[in-house]
Amino acid sequence: MGVTCVSQMPVAEGKSVQQTVEILTRKLELLGAEKQGTFCVDCETYHTAASTMGNQGQAGKLMYVMHNSEYPLSCFALFENGPCLIADANFDILMVKLKGFFQNAKANKIESRGTRYQYCDFLVKVGTVTMGPSARGISVEVEYCPCVVANDCWNLLMEFMQSFMGNHTPGIPSVFGNKHDSIYSPADSMVQYMELFNKIRKQQQYFQ
Amino acid sequence: MADGVLSPGVNLEAFSQAIAAIQALRSSVTRAFDCLKDGMRHRETLEGREKSFVSAFQDSLHSVSRDLGELERLSNLVGKPSENHPLHNSGLLSLDPVQDKTPLYSQLLQAYKWSNKLQYHAGLASGLLNQQSLKRSANQMGVSAKRRPKAQPTTLVLPPQYVDDVINRIDRMFPEMSIQLSRPNGTSAMLLVTLGKVLKVIVVMRSLFIDRTIVKGYNENVYTEDGKLDIWSKSNYQVFQKVTDHATTALLHYQLPQMPDVVVRSFMTWLRSYIKLFQAPCQRCGKFLQDGLPPTWRDFRTLEAFHDTCRQ
Fold this sequence. Notes:
Order of helices and strands of chain B: HHHHEEEEHHEE
Largest sheet of chain A: 8 strands, antiparallel
Number of strands of chain A: 8
Radius of gyration of chain A: 18 Å
Strand content of chain A: 35-45%
Distance between the termini of chain A: 38 Å
Strand content of chain B: 5-15%
Protein name (chain B): Mediator of RNA polymerase II transcription subunit 27 isoform X2
Subcellular location (chain B): Nucleus
Low-confidence stretches of chain B: 1-7
CATH topology of one domain in chain A: TATA-Binding Protein
Mean pLDDT of chain A: 87
Oligomer: heterodimer
Main location (chain B): nucleus
Order of helices and strands of chain A: EHEEEEHEEEHHH
Number of helices of chain B: 6
Strand order of the largest sheet of chain B: 1-2-3-4
Largest sheet of chain B: 4 strands, antiparallel
GO molecular function, one term (chain B): transcription coactivator activity
Keywords (chain B): Nucleus, Transcription, Transcription regulation
CATH architecture of one domain in chain A: 2-Layer Sandwich
Largest interface: A-B, 21 and 19 residues
Mean pLDDT of chain B: 83
Number of strands of chain B: 6
Number of helices of chain A: 5
């Protein structure tokens, strides 16, 4: 897995989510990127059940169970600031068995779906983030496949993102700061997606 | 006359005389046959006619044989046709009158002139190229087996222990570069050079000369399914395919037949500059990306980073 940066693209003024996605994809195609299928990243939220709280009165932890179409046989489970577990796809069934300890907040299911583009050694995924039936935002994931050390190629990634995202190029993701010189792993992408989804969920709360 | 010197050209005078002799021969033969046909008319007695007929016929036969002897003498003088045809028998194609439908002769002449010119230029080029000795093998081209030196140059048959020692010393030279040596296929060494967490290079050697290199990404698999080093498959990433081409250029550039360990050292020093493959911008245009590729070219002397299209 190469170094990946996941960011949100704000919806253009006076345009819908769909139209902004179309503008982005057209810019990518002008650059010379080739469409290579679709992708889907989804995230389900689980609360720790009240019965296991005990006397400590601590706030329930939120656990996120995520899937990524790039890794179809895997399932990612992570806590907000905690470790990320990469498990088999059967983990979902295990969660059903653990109903007593973790309860699924079905209304919070959020996913990003869209097309996958390849440009030279870059992989770009532009997706529409939906929660339920409504589209809430746009996610842009850029992966530079040959490099595995995060901080090495940040400048390169940024230059590439500027070429099609313009002023909306994001800053360095927080996971990069913790990596130092270790090898980038898929769990880091999922942490970025989790942060993005949480941000989008919070945004919409203001517009309700 | 027949066994004299072969005249290079046609003896034109003898030729014309021979043609005249043919005409004389023809006329005397015709006279002989006319004499036979007409017979003798204006003699009274049969004997007289017979005698005059026989004498007339004898005269005509004499003239025939005389003319034939003359023709034979002249035909020996004429000589062989000129050997100056540039294409010998194919020159006879020029006698074909239908030039626009089958322009064989003119095309043939052009092809011949072209191949002559090509041979001449190739001779000049080989003379110029031989001045600069770029040979990487022991064989000498165009020298017969008898004159080929019996012993190969000493740098091509080095003991494997020496090669191991040189490689180990180079391994210790740079901290971020590690070299693994193996000999899965006979005596040629195969090196797996790992440069930081950026790339892996497979170097196939021939005694202490570098034969071939393949550059792959750090996370790519360099082993085949049997667990042996995969020396043939290319990288999946365009940037490393480009770096492979540059590495091949480098191993042809660094050449010193008498001191191969210096060559290997220079090549490894050049390779080490790729530790900053993704971090260094191009020295010429200042950008990181050009057509989606980072600066993949490293100058051979200064080790500065350039895009492939930006290098001078």
